Amino acid sequence: MSKIDRREFLKRSGALLAAGSLPLTLVDVAFGKASTDDFTFAYISDSHLTHLKGKQFVRNWDRGLIRAVAEANLMDPRPDFFFYGGDIAQLGKPEEIDHGLEILGALRGNVHYVMGEHDYYLDLGEHWRKRLGPDHYSFDHKGVHFVVLNSIKTFDDWTYNKWPSAAERMHQMARLDNPQGSPFMVGDKQRAWLKDDLDKVSKDTPLVVMSHSPLQKIYKGWNFWTDDAEQIQALLKPFRKVNVLYGHVHQIQTNQIGNISFNAAMATSWPWPYPATYKQQASYMPKLTVNMNRADPFFERDATGWQFINMHTGRVDVNYRLPGNQNRVVAWDDKAGHPDDTQFQDAADRIPPQTHY
Amino acid sequence: MKKRQIQRMITAMTLVTAGIVAVPLAQADNFTQADLDRWQQEYQAVVSEGEQLFHGGLGNKNTVSCDQCHPNAANTHAETYPKFQQQLGKVAVLGEMINWCIRNPLESKPLALDDPKMIALQAYILQERRGVALAPGKH
pTM higher than 0.80 for the full model? Predict the structure, then answer.
């Protein structure tokens, strides 16, 4: 094959792959008129890459992230940038973070990162910050103000005094159902920074707030929870359009509290049960949530995925890309004043796999 | 007649004697609160062992643990077994699904269904599901 032939071949097969596997037609549907406010970004989260020894990592979790990166690169039109929602690593090891950043390095565009507890509790985020910079920051893009928070801190006593080693602290926080666990929080210092940051922003400017844990209280037992959620919501309340996007929960969750929309990300690694399926404790799942389908354990990527966000008029539509499953769209419903699943919101339209028990 | 009466007397006496001898031994329906406490302790010890195995105690090389997908053993639906598993093409018991997980996400060797580790895993899973009505076959 000559050089030109090969280049042409690659070009054509690339186009075929893009056309065949990911016709992202939904991006253009909602808003015909061109506006600087309308753009898309991809959102990948919770890969939990697990280092074994040498160059060995758990294959299953690697495959999830590699697949999401490959698919996100095929988005057409191209996303303006990418977000990674936290938990690159499983046990916070530099090898895991480096391995994740190597895979994510294939993304064709700028990536913004959120800190997860699995990235943090071994060295308290030192390696992550060395590679990626500050764990809370803000920026503006096409008229939207983006804020990134580190929401997975906890009480100092738990972090600094309770465990004999950093590795033990990481193991304890890595266990989701740990009775010895401790609630996530943004904390006084970062909330003061947030207040300061938001003071400079017009109340008409749409906000997108990215955190790892939900900035709302769903179930404390699994840290589907941020302890100072109400205080953060109070800071967001004066703004007309606020969108909170979070990872950690490995499932679709949808909520609206006043002017604040909440949407959760699917994980690339594995799905988590809805808290109501644990029958020994009460939990508070927002009623707007239309559950993801129950996982088929025989297909290892089932109930995992990634999402791209269609940002329009300061609102967020979440397009869930779910391998081997029907994709889902949770879009802003202007009439209702909250996000809706575009196909399954009505209880009569739901299907048996969406019932979790 | 007489001979039969004598035989009956001997039989009755034998039974009485046997009864007297047996009295100090515990009867099956005669357990005490101390027995109940001990049995509960035995059970709880196995539940605790199961909890430990479920949270990374199985020693599989890839270190993936059951609780990574099933915190508090949720989404295991112990009350629905046995049930038809279309992917296996047959009605399966909970232990077979545990072994499916051990073979696949955990990339390890299945346990015998009466292996004490298998029993401990099931004790923990069912303990976390206590109070839920039995629903065999349910999907």
Answer: yes
